[in-house]
Structure formats: structure tokens, C-alpha cells
Amino acid sequence: MSLPAGLWLLLLFVIPLFMMLSMSLKTCSPASGACTMTWSWGELPHVVNQYRAQFVTSLEFAAIATLIDLVISYPIAYWIAFYGGRKKNFFLIMLLVPFFVSFVIRTLVWQFILSDNGFFISFLQNHHLVSQNFHVLGTGFAVIAGLAYNYLPFTALPLYVALERIDRRVLDAAYDLYANRRNAFLRVIVPLSIPGVFAAFLLTFIPAFGDYVNQEILGGTANTMIGTVIQDLFLATSDYAGGASLSIVLLAISLVGIWFYARVLGSRSIEEYL
Amino acid sequence: MSLSASEIAAKRVKKRHFGRLILPTYSWLVIAYLVFPIAVMIIYSFNKVHAGLQMVSFAWNGATLQWYHEWSNLPGLTASFWLSIKLGIVSTLIATVLGTLLAIALVRYRPPQFRGKTIVEQVLFTNIAAPEIVMGASLLGVFVTYNIARGFLTLVLAHVMFSVAYVTVTVRARLAGFDRALEEAAYDLGAKPMSTFRLVTLPLIMPGVLAGALMAFALSIDDFVTSNFVSGTNAPFPVYIYGATRVGTPPQVFVFGTAIFVVGIGLAIASLFLTKKD
């Protein structure tokens, strides 16, 4: 029963990943494009060094966007979980509302909104809040804004699941022991939601880290992220060995994050928050 | 030091304000932020465009239904949309069947009968957690190595690959509370395994299967990253838009975006009402 799906994943997910690993251990000649297996693990640190700036940019943008999302989402997730009442499902759909518009289209809409003659910039300029040659599009701010918007549901939902799952009797116990609301929140609710916070962090950070759509549409040619480099290496310059090495590094970073999560917050699997 | 009754009352009002006033206001502001770009998209899908350049612009030139009448005027855009719908239906059907079978196997069987269960679970999880660009790039590597021409087939292979794990997880969650006694009752009444599955098991897990299928379809229709790697000359909708809008966005893109949004949100709200009736 598990065979068809298992085979599908083996042939199209597991084997390709291993082939990519082996590709990253090969050396390719740029002239002929022919690759030979040299078992050179040296390519991995080499590409990391070569694209250090892009790695740092991706790390920065993804981390800032994820932190913004955590700060924005926590109160609303808390509100829906504890005060949502019978309208919980409606509010959850509202949280998911960006997902009902194609990813590429909603990024294009942000490009439209943030463009130099768009109303966001015009508004700021008309009120003399910024100078006339101020612009957002093509800067890191636009990329971070796009990442934060696009991945917010990935943060809000795990937070909601974590908060929703808190046993209300634990909270009652805190009140019975004369905790005031502030202490009940800080010393009961927040600690119990920590696994959810980390799950939300990973589920937002990993896709944001590898994202290149926001960077290409909103960031212009500056502030290149690592996803853009990988895409270009594969699709524009056909440097498969380099692209494969970078992909392996990206995958390794994600898996280390998940492994770390499993070790530290052990008993509960990140899967529960999906 | 004790507080007077009125001070206590004042404090209570303040606390109640946080739950009743500040938090809801804040939450509605977040919702407004989430809805804002969608509203912009819908409004500007009705904006007139200056003659000549058929691109959306900020200047409001008056409302028009022109782009809804001319929704299919860009042949490439329309073709890519139908390709995406076809791709979504085919890959959803396959992923739902495979994912449901795998979910049943994962819930029912343990290592003696189901060897490698832990590995399968780990593969599923890695599949969901891995950055999409890595999956897309590795698939491209395979297709190039084995000279598999990129087109509809490679798209289906890829889309089933990234949605089957989501279907499995969704169906498995539904199966967790499944009462095996109902199946045993069917067997006791002389039902064969196939008819038990069809008449007892499947109807009971149907909500989970449908939720998984919806998820697979949504993932497929929205996918850009993987599709960008594995599509040939006929690009699905998101890939086509991405390529076609580098110089400006034709208004039809907003029309399609609005249509997809209305259908999607309509389905979601309908399912909300349907589950309430249960």
C-alpha cells in the first residue's frame, strides 16, 4: 500500500538529492560542460566562500522577516486562540487570506504598491516625510517587506496551534494560585508556547532563506540572495556543479535547524505544527 | 497597602480593555494588512488603462469592465492558466490516491509488516521541510542527466512529488481517531476487503481525503519555484506570469488573480458552513 507513494518519493525526491550531492562532488570543465567524479568535498567550502555575501544577505533578510512575522503574529494568534470563540475558523481563514492569491501575483502587487509612483511612496512624499528621490523598490526593505508578508501565515498558524493546545486548566490553576493575568501570561502561556515559536521560526525561516522570487521582483539587481544564485547557476549559466553545491549547503542548513529543534524540544515533533 | 474598591474596579476595566479592545483592534489591523494588497489587486483590475501601453498603472483612469471582457486577450496567459488547471487536476488525483494509501499504511502497520516505516516518515518530513529550490534544482539535474524532455510529464512528476507528503499528513491526522471496530463489523457481516474499504473506510476518512486533495491542488496551482525548474516551453500560470511581467503587469493578470481569489475564498467559506452542519 505504501509502495506507489514510496517509490514516487524515492525516484523523484531521495535519489535526486543524492544525485545532487554526487554532482557537487564532481568537477566540471566550464568549456565542455563535462563533469568527472573527483570526490572533491572542497567545492562546498569553496562556493560558500565565493557566495559569502549572498549567504549573509539571505540570512539577514530571512531572519529579520521571520522576527517581524513572529512579533506581528503572536498577539493575533493569542487573540484567536483565547478569545476567538465561535468565530475561530473565520479568523483562521483571514490569517490564510494571502494564500488565496498566487504567490507570484501577490508579490507583483507589492511591487505595484511600493513602486516609485505608487501611493505608498507618493503619500510619504506628499507629506514631506521622505525626500523626493526616496524609493523602496529595489532595496532590501522591499525584499524584507515582501518576505514578511508572503510568509506570515507560516508563522501565525504554528503559533495558533501551540497556543490553542494549552490546557485551560493549567491557566485556571495559575489563577487559583493567585497569579495575576500578567504573570499567568508571562509564566504559563509564554513558556508553554515556546515549542510553537521555534516551529514557527523554522517553518518561516527555511522557505524565506531559499526564496528568490521576492528578491527578484522587489529587490531588483541589488542584494542578491542565495536562491537567485542557485537559480541562475542552474538555469542561466548551466553550472550544475556549483548550483548543486550551493543547494546542498542550503539543504544542510535547513536540516541542521530541524535536527537542532528535535534535540532541544525533543518530545514534540515539528510535524504537529504543519 | 490596600486598594479601594473603585481602584480595583478601574484596574479591572483596564485589563478588560486589553482583551476586549486593544487586542481585537490590533488583530483587525493585522487582518487589514493581510487583505490590503488583495484589495489593491481587485480594485486595480477595474482600472482603465491609457491607450497604447496595456499595463496596470497607479493613476486612476476610471472604472471599467474591459479587462473582464478581454480576460482571454493574452493567448499566452490564458494557455498557461488552463495548463495549470489541467496540471493541478492530474497531479491532485495521483497525489491524493498515493498519499491516502500511504497514510493508511502508516497508521495500520508497524515494522514487522511495514519495514522501513521510520525511514518513510523521515523522508516525508524532509520532503515537507526541504527548501523548494533544492527540490526543483535536484529534479532538473535528474531530468537533464537522463535526457528527459521537460514538459507536462515532468511537471506532473514534480507536483505529485511535493504534494504527496502533505496529503499523507492530512489524511493520517484524520485516521488517528478511526475506529477499527467499524471495519470488523463489516467483515463480520460478510463484506469483502474491497467493499469494506469502499463502503466503510473511505466514507469515514473522506473529509481528510478531500482536505488533502484541496491542499494538493492549492500547492500545485500556486507553485512557482519547482515548476520554473522543470517546465519546458509551455509554462504553467505562475511561471508564465513571472516571465511576462518583468516590464510591467498586464491588467489581465489582476483579473486572473481576482478570479482565483474569489473561487478559493468561496470554497473555503463554503467548507466552513458545511463542516458546521455536521
Show the helix and strand layout:
The complex is a heterodimer of chains A (274) and B (278).
Chain A: H1 3-24, E1 26-28, E2 35-37, H2 43-50, H3 52-83, H4 88-95, H5 103-114, H6 119-126, H7 140-164, H8 168-176, H9 181-210, H10 213-218, H11 226-235, H12 240-264
Antiparallel strand pairs in A: 1-2
Helix pairs in contact in A: 1-12, 2-12, 3-7, 3-9, 7-9, 8-9, 9-12, 11-12
Chain B: H1 5-44, H2 66-69, H3 75-108, H4 117-129, H5 132-145, H6 152-175, H7 180-188, H8 193-222, H9 225-230, H10 237-244, H11 251-277
What does this structure look like?
The complex is a heterodimer of chains A (274) and B (278). By secondary structure, chain A is an all-alpha fold. Chain A has a domain at 51-81 and 140-273: MetI-like fold (Orthogonal Bundle), CATH 1.10.3720.10. In chain A, 71% of the residues lie in helices and 2% in strands. Chain A has a two-stranded antiparallel ribbon with strand order 1-2. The relative contact order of chain A is 0.13. The mean pLDDT of chain A is 85. Chain B is mainly alpha-helical. Chain B has a domain at 75-249: MetI-like fold (Orthogonal Bundle). Helix content of chain B is 75%, strand content 0%. Chain B has helices at residues 5-44, 66-69, 75-108, 117-129, 132-145, 152-175, 180-188, 193-222, 225-230, 237-244, 251-277. The radius of gyration of chain B is 25 Å and the shape is globular. The chains are: A mainly alpha (274), B mainly alpha (278). At the A-B interface, helix 1, helix 3, helix 4, helix 5 and helix 9 of A face helix 1, helix 3, helix 4, helix 5 and helix 6 of B.
